[in-house]
Amino acid sequence: MSHQPVFSLTDADIWVATDADRPDLAAFCRDNPEYDVFLSGEVPDEAEWVEDFMTDLPPAAFNWTATHKLIARRHQDQGKIAAILDITEDMIGRGVGHIGLFQVATALHGAGLAHGLYQGLEDWLASRGMDVLRLGVLDGNARGTAFWTQHGFLEARRRQGTAPTGKTHLSHVMYKPLKPLSLDAYRLRVPRDDPSSP
After folding, report:
1. What pTM value is reported for the model?
2. Per-residue DSSP letters for the chain?
3. If you compute the radius of gyration of the chain from its CA atoms, what whole number of angstroms results?
4. 9: which strand partners?
5. Could you tell me how far CA 158 lies from the centroid of its own chain?
6. Quick one: which of 24, 103, 121, 192 has the most CB atoms within 10 Å?
7. Alpha-carbon distance 158 to 139, whole Å?
8. Are the C-beta atoms of residues 165 and 40 closer than 8 Å to each other?
9. Per-residue model confidence as pLDDT tens digits over 85-118
10. What φ, ψ does residue 54 adopt, rounded to 5°?
């Protein structure tokens, strides 16, 4: 792990994932397959899942400037990964922070970690110059939709997607301005999130 966490909560530290974390990431995959099964219809292969998490990058055409593969470890249980995050800065537009993955261990659902983790992430991204955040929520993920709506995210559009296994899914693209920004102004900054865009 890095010498210093990327940011900290009262009960957890968030670190950049390194190769030394791969065994713990594999354990996280094994213990928390629900999201991947929902997305692709299949239980993920641990080795492939870890490699994808560590190395997958957004398309170069999105003109992003930085990506962060992050893990959270709670102070009382440092040996286990409590959550994983995949974050991209300046994706598609300057100042746009994209939350590509935000997954808390199933056993910790309802424990309050997710809310604190999100607020810490928002504050950290704002400190790095991001003034609007975006993400996608799979249709049918009522828990995810409720969580992001509670944190002030609004729907910008819906987009059809296909998982690597071939399973199709509808994604609700959501955004949250960290300073005043209308939906029309947001779509001008991120044309991909305009429903008229392919």
Report:
1. 0.94
2. --SS-SEE-SSEEEEE--GGGHHHHHHHHHH--HHHHHHHSSPPPHHHHHHHHHH----GGG---EEEEEEEEETTBTTS--EEEEEEES-SSTTEEEEEEEEE-GGGTTSSHHHHHHHHHHHHHHHTT--EEEEEEETT-HHHHHHHHHTT-EEEEEEEEE-TTS-EEEEEEEEEESS---HHHHHHH-GGGSTT--
3. 16
4. none
5. 17
6. 121
7. 9
8. yes
9. 999 999 999 999 999 999 999 999 999 999 999 9
10. -75, -30
In single-letter form, the type of residue at position 18 comes to T
Q: Which of 104, 185, 189, 186 is nearest to 147 (CA)?
A: 104
Dump pLDDT digits (tens) for 136-184: 999 999 999 999 999 999 999 999 987 777 778 899 999 999 999 999 9
Asked if 45 contacts 37 with a C-beta cutoff of 8 angstroms, the reply is: no
Distance from chain centroid for Cα 17: 14
Measured CA to CA, the distance from residue 38 to residue 140 in angstroms comes to 9
Within 10 angstroms of residue 132's Cβ, the number of other Cβ atoms is: 20
Which positions ≥6 away from 27 have C-beta within 8 Å? 80, 81
